[in-house]
Design a protein that fits this description.
This protein is an alpha+beta fold. The protein has one domain (16-96): Arc Repressor Mutant, subunit A (Orthogonal Bundle), CATH 1.10.10.10. The chain contains 4 helices and 2 strands. Strands 1-2 form a two-stranded antiparallel ribbon. β1 (59-64) and β2 form a beta hairpin. α1 packs across α4. The longest helix is centred in the middle third of the chain and has 13 residues, at 43-55.
């Protein structure tokens, strides 16, 4: 825990990108504001992360009426060289549902 912030930690094992991907896996029709609240970032940051994930091919965004639906693309590999041989599907199975 960090000084002045009881219950808050100075770092986590997963990035905000991973947390957003996990939030989408749990709720593909969630609003950006709901994803942001779950992850603990601003809606603007969540939207930026969603765009990053879409541009990198980890998810596909589509419209369903007035809502946005996110679909995770299976079998995408981690980006870091030390874990690039693994697919994000393993992380989603472990923590996503």
């Amino acid at each position: 825990m960090t000084a002045g912030h009881p219950g808050r930690h100075s770092w986590t094992f997963l990035t905000n990108h991973a947390h957003v991907l996990l939030a989408v896996a749990r709720s593909p029709d969630a609003r950006v504001a709901d994803i942001a609240a779950e992850v603990g970032v601003t809606p603007r940051a969540a939207l930026s992360i969603l765009r990053d994930l879409e541009e990198a091919g980890y998810l596909v965004r589509s419209r369903r009426g007035r809502r946005t639906h996110y679909e995770i693309r299976p079998h995408q590999h981690f980006r870091h060289p030390s874990t690039a041989q693994h697919e994000v599907d393993g992380l989603l199975r472990l923590l996503g549902r």
